[in-house]
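Hi there,

I know you've been waiting on this one. I reran it after we fixed the sequence typo, so this is the corrected version. Both the input and the resulting structure follow.
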Amino acid sequence: MNGTIPKSPMKLLVVEDSRTQAEYLRHILENEGYRIVLAVNGLEALEQIKIDRPAMVLSDILMPEMDGYELCKRIRSDTSIATIPVILVTQLFDPVDVIKGLEAGADNFIIKPFEPQHVYSRIQSVLQMLERSDPHDRSETGIAVSFANSNHTITASKLQILTILLSTYELAVKKNTELSETHERLNAVNEQLQVTVEKLKLANEDLISENAERRKVEDALEKANKKLLLMASITRHDLLNQLTALHEFIELALMTKNADPEKAWNHVLTAEGIVNQTVNTVRFTEDYQKLGIKSAVWQSVRAQIDNSLKHTSLGTLKLENSIPADIELYADPLIEKVFSNLIDNAVRHGGKSMTTIRFTYACNNDTCTIICEDDGNGISPDEKEKIFSYGFGNNSGLGLFLSREILNITGITIKETGEFHKGARFEIICPQTTIRKSGQI
């Protein structure tokens, strides 16, 4: 505060029931050179005024026994102390506070929480007002004021009213400025928060996508492990049966080679057939052990069909690959073998009248279907499911079984839906999570 008013001899009475608030206000004022006396309520304040009259009273409004309004009224009603300036200290500040303060005879207000500069300016404002005040300016009868359904009578001078109103306006402008600054800071923080939320959202989406891919891989590996265990059991059983039969036919050939050479030779030929069957079984296990070893990946369906032609010969047959180039399938890396098995199956069993093998693609609701069909002999109704069984068929009986196992790694299914004598039709049914256009996530 600018030192236009002498402060060293000035005594101020602080009336505050909160010891913490009182000591803080004492600290602020003593730093400016004022001499401070404390009172805890209005009654004690009146006693202090009688003992040693202060130059000014700073009183809290909300206090037990006697509040600040009543203390102010008591001071104004006693002619011996009525000229002591009173500043009311409050946490509230609305029009009713101002009117009740003026009605009680308060000279100004200080708002909690305290700001030292605000406290100094209010004290100086009151002291300057007292220097300029006109004793004849005070209304003897009072000014009747009606506000918020209450009637009040104000006897303060015009200068006193103007000073309080200007102080109120100054504080309102200051608070509004602080509010605007806070609002701007909140907007800036909110913008930063929005950016952070967007980043977190993107990171969360990436994490969800990554977790989904990881779950796919884990599910595929779990299925592969179960199937490998099953295959090991089946293969061991088949090899034991084949080796046992091979041993029996060799023994029969040895037993009959002298007595009946022709019969012995037939036993040898049968044994040779068993050897070929055993070799096919071993070759199949070589393919099957690769199942699920590598993680499933997104692969071009059209490219895999074209690549599968390396493993089989079409002869005079025509292959039509109508799958769009951008269609990708999430499947085990052995998916190429599925397409080669389908082509090989058509070549072997389609019959002499067959001319074309065709791959097409269609979507319906949440699933898409890759279709392999031909114009050959077709498959009888009672064999449509059996052809996917292990060991069924005139050849090795392993190709379509392996195809179904490869597809099932990622939840893809296959079934035969062709019409007998009009051609075979294999439908590879792909859930929405296993098929996409290249570039999609």
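Quick highlight: The chain has a mean pLDDT of 83.

Best,
R. S.
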